[in-house]
Amino acid sequence: ELARDYLEHGGFAVVVARDGPAALEAVARSRPDLVVLDLGLPGLDGLDVTREIRRSSSLPIVMLTARDDELDKVLGLELGADDYLTKPFSPRELVARVRAVLRRVDSGSSAGGATPDRVVAGDLTLDLPRMRAELAGRQIELTPTEFQLLATLAGRPGRIFTRSQLLDAVHGVAFESYERAIDTHVKNLRRKLEPDPRRPRYLLTVYGVGYRFADERT
Fold first, then answer.
1. Are 144 and 82 in contact (CB under 8 A)?
2. What's CA 191's distance to the chain center, in Å?
3. Nearest to 210 by CA among 146, 153, 148, 162
4. What is the C-alpha to C-alpha distance for residues 177 and 28, in angstroms, rounded to an integer?
5. Coil, strand or helix: which one is 124?
């Protein structure tokens, strides 16, 4: 109720679901712009709800968890959550996180080396206004966070980004989200983009530093 009150005060229309099945019904019925999802839902927990949503949608998801457990966080991110908060959390921070994720949906990226509307890096094309990704003519379904991360890296092929820089790029501000969340998002991107995720061609690790998108000389 407190989270709902703060979100409504922040200008959002909020639909509340009391359990997992009701959450899936609400998503199908209300077609929201974003889901704030508690991992501890009765009936069907938040991870299962995320799996179901991700079968057919890249709808932004901000996940809430009662345990400061890295395994829960990583699993939630691997399933496609865009962000997470650990209870107890500040309702104001929740509103800020929701706004940050929605800004990623609305604004896309204007990284260097890109036009205002498009990033082209080899056989990868990103349509920024529509948040549409194509690799060799094949459409790739990405979450908003995955899209923003990929646009940041592909917008400057060859440039090395630290995890901190990437975290700041996808959130817009330096939240205290732990930087290893970036590793999980990169892992998800590799699974969707790379012919062999174990031997990536596009998203390259710079050990001890961060990541870069391969340039034509790589």
1. yes
2. 15
3. 162
4. 30
5. strand
Distance of CA 141 to the CA centre of its chain: 12
Phi, psi of 77 (to 5 degrees): -65, -40
Pull the structure tokens for residue 143: 């979450």
Instruction: Give the CA distances from residue 80 to residues 36, 52, 56, 147, 158, in Å, rounded to whole numbers and listed in that order.
Output: 13, 11, 12, 12, 26
For residue 134 the two structure tokens come to: 């194509």
pLDDT higher than threshold 70 for residue 176: no
Q: How confident is the model at residue 173 (pLDDT cuts 50, 70, 90)?
A: very low
Residue 156 · residue 113 · CB < 8 Å: yes
> Do residues 135 and 213 lie in contact, with contact meaning Cβ atoms separated by under 8 Å?
no
Cα-based distances in Å from 115 to 105, 129, 147, 156, 204: 18, 11, 16, 12, 23
Phi, psi at 71, each rounded to 5°:
-60, -45
166: amino acid identity, one letter: L
Q: Which residue has the tokens 């800020």?
A: 96
Percent of the chain at pLDDT exceeding 70: 87
Q: CA angle at residue 131 from 129 to 136, to 5 degrees? A: 115
17, 25 Cβ separation under 8 angstroms: yes
pLDDT tens per residue, range 31-54: 999 999 998 888 898 889 999 998
Contacts of 141 (CB under 8 A, 6+ apart): 58, 133, 192
Neighbours of 168 (CB within 10 A): 16
Please answer whether residues 94 and 34 qualify as being in contact, where contact means their C-beta atoms are separated by less than 8 angstroms.
no
